[in-house]
Amino acid sequence: MCGRYSFFIPIEGAEQQLQVRAIPNPDWFPHYNAAPSQGMPVITNEFPDVIQYFRWGLVPKWAKDVSIGYKMINTRTESIEEKPAFKNIFKYKRCIVLADGYYEWKSMEPEGTLSKAKSKLVKQPYRFHLPGDDIIMMAGLWDTWGNEGLQTFSIITCPANEDTLPYHDRMPVILSHEQVKHWLNNKTPLPELLSMLKPAPNGLLRIYPISTYLNKPGNEGPEVIEKIMVP
After folding, report:
1. What is the tens place of the pLDDT at every residue in 30-50?
2. Are strands 5-7 and 31-34 parallel, antiparallel or unpaired?
3. How far apart (Å, rounded) are the C-alpha atoms in residues 209 and 148?
4. pLDDT computed for residue 133 by the predictor
5. 12, 81, 104, 162: which one is catalytic?
6. Is residue 184 very low, low, confident or very high in pLDDT (cuts 50, 70, 90)?
7. Residue tagged active-site, from 2, 178, 220, 223
């Protein structure tokens, strides 16, 4: 599950680093605490040299209404291989979701608890990021829905690697720069695309605890990612 992430790198910096251009968006602002239904930057296989802003929460073209998007912020790798509807989207509508970190919550015993049987578990948030807060390129699916052309996306998740398993049993599929070239190439064979849907190498991500200030979706700013000490 990846239910919250961040992208606060200046768009100009992302353009330069990824050698792409961004469509101007006067409503865009850096997100330290991106939540489902918000518009976030993606690069699609349709326009692989352009940063666009799609709504987080996939609404496939066959959906009856947009509410399904809240249930489809993530797409499991297993669903892509097992469900025909997802395999079709996977074949024709792939994207990378730009991030500089994502978050998970780990259940912990409250400090000073004497009886585990009577204690209520505390959910401690953690931040996962690359050294130097480099851009994380998460594999995703996208689609366009309805007459108004609503463009949405979902983050593809896979089983966690050894580093992230203590915090959650799943993690986003993270692609390398070389993999991104093939991921966004419409000529890449399906078996090669499927082979990319695997956990990131151990040692890739840095992990540290942050404040529960993250918990409220409306909370934004650098304080979201400040490291704290936990017992």
Report:
1. 999 999 999 999 999 999 999
2. antiparallel
3. 41
4. 86
5. 104
6. very high
7. 2
Task: Give catalytic status of residue 226 as yes or no.
Answer: no
Residue pLDDT, tens place only, 11-26: 999 999 999 999 999 9
Q: Which residues contact 96 (CB under 8 A, 6 or more apart)?
A: 42, 43, 137, 138, 139, 140, 175, 180, 183, 184
Q: Is 46 one of the catalytic residues?
A: no
Altogether, the residues listed in the chain come to a count of: 231
> How many helices, marked H, and strands, marked E, lie in the chain?
5, 14
DSSP string, 92-153: H-EEEEEESEEEEEEEEPPTT-S-TTT---EEEEEEEE-GGGPPEEEEEEEEEETTTTEEEE
Average pLDDT over residues 175-192: 96
